[in-house]
Specification:
The chain is of the alpha/beta class. Helix content is 31%, strand content 16%. It folds into 2 domains: 13-75, Orthogonal Bundle (DNA polymerase, domain 1); 80-372, Alpha-Beta Barrel (TIM Barrel).
Length: 379
């Protein structure tokens, strides 16, 4: 069953993004007895996350009077699509607008028999990594669980992939690699991913979800323990001197602490390797000496290294390493026993490639921003 067309209904109370327990509590407050609320919550969960409905009209297992009553109070709206772009290589990018007018970008990257949805966790970013276009946009606010889950639901709407397929899927994987640092919005990201992983709804396996962090060390172990998703680490340099400059969070959590956290990441094994992301910057971090230092740095960690050709934007301060330099770097890493695939840039023509996402959202007025400003880096 295809979902109804999404509409924005900010005057109604949203149900998307509530946990199962919160949904039951909401229905009790709505007037249902606890036992009935539990049953009703399971019905709603099924229709919202398995069938992808965005209105109550098609929920045939719920009596019409109850559907009308629910529709008078609640909504199942997604964010609105402010702009959609399609790349020549099949990549698709949506600029999504939320109820307060703030916007983020979400990207779908197709492969031959599957594909990944790249989801944002914040409007803007506070980490200001020098090679990342998102880092040139000031942090506006964290996204709520509803806004995170809804990005994947918009992608499914666009591809008509409802009900949730039990076999092969086009939208098979999720990567928390969009705008923002996921671990600086951990509570909302964790809540959203638990909804996505629930087997009675969207049902994406934790093995098909990868969370990328620039290195917020205190929350990495908690991520592994509570979510068990795959971990990707934006490394990009092998010395504190360079990483302090291009990945400023390193000044708070230097490389030694980051690598130690990777060694302790729950569930890491040869079957579930940690991915180290390494953007290739010409004459900055792409020498044979850098490659040898990288191999030495991660020795003993079940890992692979994604080499990412730098994706430029207007005014970018770096150039991409030459093909020869990337090949030489990869060869050194491969000969040391690590897989070092070179990530093929996707969606460059629509600024949808790694490190290119950015929206035009601006920080809210001071009194609003204060209510939604993320906490400082954890100690």
């Amino acid at each position: 069953m295809a979902p109804d067309l999404p509409i924005t209904m900010s005057a109604f109370k949203p149900l998307i993004g509530l946990s199962r327990a919160e949904l039951e509590a909401e229905l009790v407050a709505f007037g249902e007895r606890p036992q009935a609320a539990r049953m009703r919550a399971r019905q709603l969960w099924h229709w919202i996350y398995h069938h992808g409905l965005s209105s109550f009209d098609g929920m045939s297992s719920i009596a019409r009077p109850m559907r009308e009553k629910l529709a008078a109070t609640y909504c199942l709206a997604r964010p609105s699509i402010a702009r959609e772009q399609r790349s020549n290589d099949g990549t698709r990018k949506w600029l999504l607008r939320f109820d307060d007018g703030q916007e983020v970008e979400t990207v779908y990257i197709p492969e031959e028999d599957r594909g990944a949805v790249c989801i944002s966790s914040q409007v803007g970013c506070s980490l200001t990594c020098k090679f990342c276009h998102t880092g040139t946009q000031r942090l506006v606010r964290n996204l709520g669980a509803r806004e995170i889950v809804s990005q994947f639901m918009v992608a499914r709407d666009s591809y008509g992939e409802w009900p949730s397929p039990s076999g092969e899927r086009m939208l098979s994987n999720i990567v928390m690699m969009g705008m923002g640092e996921p671990l600086l919005n951990f509570e909302n990201v964790a809540k959203a991913l638990r909804i996505v992983m629930d087997s009675e709804g969207i049902s994406i396996s934790r093995r098909r979800i990868t969370l990328s962090t620039a290195g917020v060390v205190p929350l990495m172990e908690r991520c592994g323990q509570e979510l068990g998703v795959n971990l990707a680490v934006s490394l990009h340099a092998v010395t504190d001197e360079l990483r302090d400059e291009i990945v400023p969070v390193n000044r708070k959590y230097p490389i030694a602490q980051l690598i130690d956290a990777c060694r302790r990441y729950p569930g890491a094994s040869n079957a579930r390797r940690i991915t180290f992301e390494y953007v290739m910057l010409k004459d900055v971090n792409d020498s044979p000496a850098d490659a040898k230092a990288l191999v030495k740095l991660i020795a003993g960690i079940p890992a692979k290294i994604n080499l990412i050709p730098f994706n430029a934007w207007s005014g970018a301060p770096f150039e991409c390493s030459s093909d020869e330099a990337i090949e030489r770097f990869a060869d050194i890493v491969n000969r040391a026993g690590y897989s070092a695939p070179v990530r093929q840039p996707r969606g460059r023509d629509i600024l949808a490639a790694c490190g290119q996402l950015k929206s035009a959202s601006q920080r809210a007025p001071k009194r609003v921003a204060e209510a939604s400003t993320p906490a400082p880096l954890p100690v």
